């Protein structure tokens, strides 16, 4: 039986469009953390802080730091520390996010839950201003909190897409959200670039980076208010008959939610196939994003200023990329468009392996290529997955989706960190990511999108 789409009860098209515009603002808000913190600043900065503790200095391309830092008795390479921290945060997310999903599917106000996680994460990001000297432990702890809150807020945020957009609207709405987010993240990066370039001896590069981290937290928390005020509260969709929704039952259910959700997912084999494919190829994408600044600085010898300028370029190119992928999906379908994007990702990673050191032009060409495919593959993945999940379990399923989402990947960062620790070079580490895109592509070849949507009981869009 095909279920009514929740967005159909949202009122007129005008009312839905109004909510969709408010929804876009959270992409604008959280992209400050994704770009300024996760992609550009915290990786190289926290690595430098750890290197000062391990080696008494910051490593360079010509004189790298190969010493370890001590974390709970474990000797971890200072250069790989950030990747291990992100890995830990993602494993923790795998336990926490299904609980968030269970709660979000049953609360009367998803927007309030989303904003609460966002504001806690924003406070943790603001506190990164305090990370200085050799205090990498504080930075690592705040990074875990920030990534966890980001994943939790996005679990709820993605589930809201089903409430505010009909099946035929979702590719467009999701792509516009990503594009708007890239615009917001890019504008803040421009401001941060100006701060870092103009720091001089009076402020210093480290202080400029810390102020930029603070600005990302203020941006994330402040613009979340617009999304919170513009969205409406949508009542939970009816769950299977007989399920207890009392507060005590919800708490008991939450502790066993990961197993319950995975067991329920087995009844939707095509949805599970897509999620596994997404786990692989998105881990590759996220690791490229997260490692790009470290790769550029530590392997290719570019300054922080060059890296920030490069990420700004990626942000603005990604706006056009996301909108273009959305338009192509309207003609070819989301699955085929994503697969084309994965072929381009394989070519990009291969080019990164042979990228010459200290040559800006080839690096900018590579960055432009990343921008063209970055937003499109992610935006279409979100909208495609929303078509394949059963009604009433949107946030629950998106909690699994977020375990593999931006900033919370763990397979890719773990492989990247291990390969670097074993080889002492970031080049073989970046090349190893090809396997994630290849596996994702092969699994998407086997995916039957129409069957997945029908199995979930939803209306099939005109183009799949």
Describe it for me?
This is MFS transporter. It comes from Mumia zhuanghuii. Keywords: Membrane, Transmembrane, Transmembrane helix, Transport. One of its GO terms (molecular function) is transmembrane transporter activity. By secondary structure, the chain is an all-alpha fold. The protein contains 18 helices and 2 strands. It has a single domain, classed as MFS general substrate transporter like domains (Growth Hormone, Chain: A), CATH 1.20.1250. It has a two-stranded antiparallel ribbon with strand order 1-2. A hairpin with a 2-residue loop joins strand 1 and strand 2. Helix 5 packs antiparallel against helix 11. The longest helix has 43 residues. 56% of the residues are buried.
Annotation keywords:
mainly alpha, Growth Hormone, Chain: A, two-stranded antiparallel ribbon, single chain, 18 helices, 464 residues
Please specify the SSE layout and strand pairing:
Layout: H1 13-55, E1 68-71, E2 74-77, H2 81-104, H3 110-127, H4 136-164, H5 170-197, H6 200-203, H7 205-230, H8 247-255, H9 257-265, H10 269-299, H11 304-332, H12 334-353, H13 360-386, H14 394-402, H15 411-423, H16 427-431, H17 434-445, H18 449-455
Antiparallel strand pairs: 1-2
Helix pairs in contact: 1-4, 1-5, 1-7, 1-10, 1-11, 2-4, 2-8, 2-14, 2-15, 3-4, 3-7, 4-14, 5-7, 5-11, 5-13, 10-13, 10-15, 10-17, 11-12, 11-13, 12-13, 12-17
């Amino acid at each position: 039986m095909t279920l009514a789409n929740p967005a159909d009860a949202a009122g007129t098209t005008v009312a839905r469009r109004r909510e969709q515009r408010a929804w876009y603002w959270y992409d604008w808000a959280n992209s400050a953390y994704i770009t300024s913190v996760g992609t550009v600043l915290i990786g190289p900065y926290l690595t430098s802080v750890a290197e000062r503790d391990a080696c008494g200095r910051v490593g360079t391309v010509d004189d790298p730091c190969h010493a370890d830092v001590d974390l709970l008795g474990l000797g971890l390479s200072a250069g790989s520390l950030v990747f291990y921290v992100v890995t830990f945060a993602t494993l923790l997310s795998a336990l926490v996010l299904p609980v968030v999903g269970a709660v979000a599917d049953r609360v009367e106000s998803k927007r309030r839950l989303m904003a609460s996680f966002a504001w806690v994460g924003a406070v943790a990001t603001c506190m990164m201003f305090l990370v200085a000297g050799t205090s990498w432990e504080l930075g690592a702890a705040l990074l875990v909190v920030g990534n966890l809150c980001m994943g939790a807020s996005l679990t709820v945020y993605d589930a809201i897409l089903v409430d505010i957009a009909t099946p035929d609207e979702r590719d467009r709405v999701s792509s516009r959200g990503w594009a708007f987010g890239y615009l917001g993240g890019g504008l803040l990066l421009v401001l941060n670039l100006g701060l870092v370039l103009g720091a001089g001896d009076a402020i210093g590069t480290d202080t400029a980076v810390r102020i930029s981290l603070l600005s990302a937290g203020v941006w994330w928390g402040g613009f979340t208010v617009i999304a919170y005020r513009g969205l409406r509260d949508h009542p939970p969709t009816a769950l299977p008959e007989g399920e207890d929704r009392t507060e005590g039952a919800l708490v008991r259910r939450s502790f066993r939610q990961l197993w319950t959700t995975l067991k329920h997912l087995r009844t939707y084999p095509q949805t599970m196939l897509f999620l596994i494919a997404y786990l692989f190829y998105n881990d590759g994408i996220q690791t490229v994003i997260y490692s790009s600044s470290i790769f550029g600085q530590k392997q290719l010898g570019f300054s922080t200023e060059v890296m920030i300028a490069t990420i700004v370029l990626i942000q603005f190119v990604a706006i056009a990329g996301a909108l273009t992928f959305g338009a192509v999906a309207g003609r070819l379908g989301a699955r085929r468009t994503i697969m084309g994007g994965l072929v381009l990702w394989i070519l990009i990673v291969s080019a990164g392996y042979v990228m010459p050191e200290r040559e800006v032009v080839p690096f900018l060409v590579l960055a432009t290529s990343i921008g063209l495919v970055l937003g499109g593959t992610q935006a279409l993945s979100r909208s495609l997955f929303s078509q394949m999940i059963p009604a009433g379990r949107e946030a629950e399923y998106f909690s699994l989706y977020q375990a593999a989402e931006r900033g919370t990947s763990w397979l890719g960062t773990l492989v990247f960190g291990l390969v670097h620790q074993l080889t002492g070079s970031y080049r073989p580490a970046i090349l190893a990511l090809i396997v994630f895109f290849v596996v994702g592509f092969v699994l998407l070849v086997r995916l039957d999108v129409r069957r997945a949507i029908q199995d979930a009981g939803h209306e099939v869009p005109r183009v799949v």
